[in-house]
Design goal:
This protein has about 425 residues and is of the alpha+beta class. The chain folds into two domains: about 90 residues, Rieske Iron-sulfur Protein, CATH 2.102.10; about 240 residues, Naphthalene 1,2-dioxygenase Alpha Subunit, Chain A, domain 1 (Alpha-Beta Complex). The chain contains eleven helices and 17 strands. A seven-stranded antiparallel sheet has the order 1-10-9-4-3-2-5. β7 and β8 form a beta hairpin. The structure holds FE2/S2 (inorganic) cluster and fe (ii) ion.
Length: about 425
């Protein structure tokens, strides 16, 4: 972890002053303070990250009773498990006695969780089964000492968690983009590959980078050859219009390209962002591969390649890029003040067979390489932003519009947290 020399007299007072100063410079990148302050980071975790809906895994990754995966967020660990009734549940990986982690391996199958410290045993749904020698404690109530629950919903096979038990309804929000997302039949998809890219940068820099394509032409040569998002709308409009005109007919999915955006401050409840739009690929490219040629069988009920790609946002930290024959999910999680985990998940049809229906190297090439390019620029960005001499410049009104929405929500949330 890169150490940042935060001023020792950092305080809510200072944070308030910095937030006020941002209001005087709207539409500009934000002050380095927000990337350097440990106090800010702590507030973010408490009031933003742990109140957000976060993609955890695909339901097909834990098909059997007792199958689980750990989700690591900052210093925290959450168990996501398939319980006996077939549901997927989530809970904190923290023993209710003196706080040891009850589960070490990042994934597997368990009949119980046994705390390695004093041996308390939990059922897979988190309820306490046995606490050794507590019969001498007349007031001890097992029912009050289950692993703490985490909010968990499954939507089209995508499992989301939220540490806020009073969080708003993500499902209602995602229902607004049901037709567009439903086209890919994610319920019956499978994970072809997933990989975590640890970046030496504050989590906001990684998301900011994802939310703008101003850098695409300069940093992502392969991506930019195929995707029109790297251009201003005035330039890409003819290609996009041609694709949109025939998208419904070619894909066979009515409404596949319908645009819907309720993200950040416009989301119906905190952290329940939903966004869908379809943008065009240049002539000769039908999907997100190095050469633009198909990589896997068509997803869901999609009939043919329309030269389009679905752009989605699901909650504040998770995104999807859905090609007719595969989907790429992107999730950002802070590891520390100066480290972020970018998780990429490649999804294909559930019945597609590796080696026969798709070649993993071909399937993952574009977004693996694009992510390595992003890693390079994000870490350079972090190094510059962490300089106390960085003077923030203006956002581009079109290319960096969504990023401006993210920053606006972020500053608003931080301000509310210390109000
Ligand atoms: S900390 Fe888990 S049993 Fe004591
Ligand atoms: Fe990028």
């Amino acid at each position: 972890m890169q150490t940042i020399a935060t001023s020792v007299d950092d305080s809510f007072e200072r944070m308030r002053a910095r937030l006020e100063a941002e209001k005087a410079r709207p539409h500009h990148a934000i002050n380095p303070y927000f990337y350097r302050s440990h106090l800010v980071h702590e507030q973010e975790l408490e009031h933003l990250i742990f109140k957000s809906w976060i993609y955890a895994l695909h339901a097909s990754e834990i098909p059997n009773t007792g199958d689980y995966q750990l989700l690591e967020i900052g210093e925290d660990s959450i168990i996501v498990v398939r319980t006996e009734d077939g549901d997927i549940k989530a809970m904190h990986n923290v023993c209710r006695h003196r706080g040891a982690r009850v589960c070490e391996a990042t994934q597997g199958n368990r009949k119980t969780y046994v705390c390695p410290y004093h041996g308390w045993v939990y059922h897979i749904d988190g309820s306490l089964k046995v606490a050794r020698e507590t019969h001498v404690m007349p007031d001890f109530d097992s029912a009050q000492h289950g692993l703490k629950p985490v909010n968990c919903v499954t939507y089209m096979g995508l499992v989301f968690i939220n540490c806020d038990l009073n969080a708003g309804d993500l499902t209602a929000s995602l229902d607004q983009i049901k037709a567009q997302l439903g086209a890919y039949d994610l319920d019956h998809a499978k994970v072809a590959h997933r990989k975590t890219y640890r970046v030496d940068a504050n989590w906001k820099l990684a998301i900011e980078n994802y939310l703008e394509c101003y850098h695409c032409a300069t940093s992502h040569r392969s991506y930019a050859r195929a995707h029109t998002l790297k251009d201003l709308e005035e330039k890409s409009a003819p290609v996009v219009a041609k694709m949109l005109e025939r998208a419904d007919e070619i894909t066979g999915i009515p409404g596949i390209s319908k645009e819907h955006t309720t993200i950040y401050l416009d989301a119906p409840s905190f952290g329940s962002c939903a966004h869908a739009m379809r943008y065009g690929l240049f002539d000769g490219y039908v999907t997100g591969t190095q050469d633009g040629r198909p990589a896997a069988p068509l997803m869901g009920d999609i009939q043919d390649y329309d030269g389009g790609v679905g752009d989605f946002q699901l909650g504040p930290l998770s995104f999807m890029l859905n090609y007719p024959d595969h989907c790429v999910l992107y999730r950002f999680l802070p590891k520390s003040l100066t480290e972020t985990d970018m998780e990429l998940v490649w999804l294909v049809r559930g019945d597609a067979v590796e080696g026969t229906d798709y070649d993993l190297e071909r399937l993952t090439w574009l977004w693996h390489h694009t992510t390595l390019e992003d890693e390079y620029i994000i870490t350079r960005n972090a190094a510059g932003v962490n300089s106390r001499f960085f003077e923030p410049g203006p956002y581009h009104p079109e290319f960096e519009f969504t990023l401006t929405q993210f920053i606006h929500w972020y500053l608003h949330t931080l301000e509310a947290s210390i109000a």
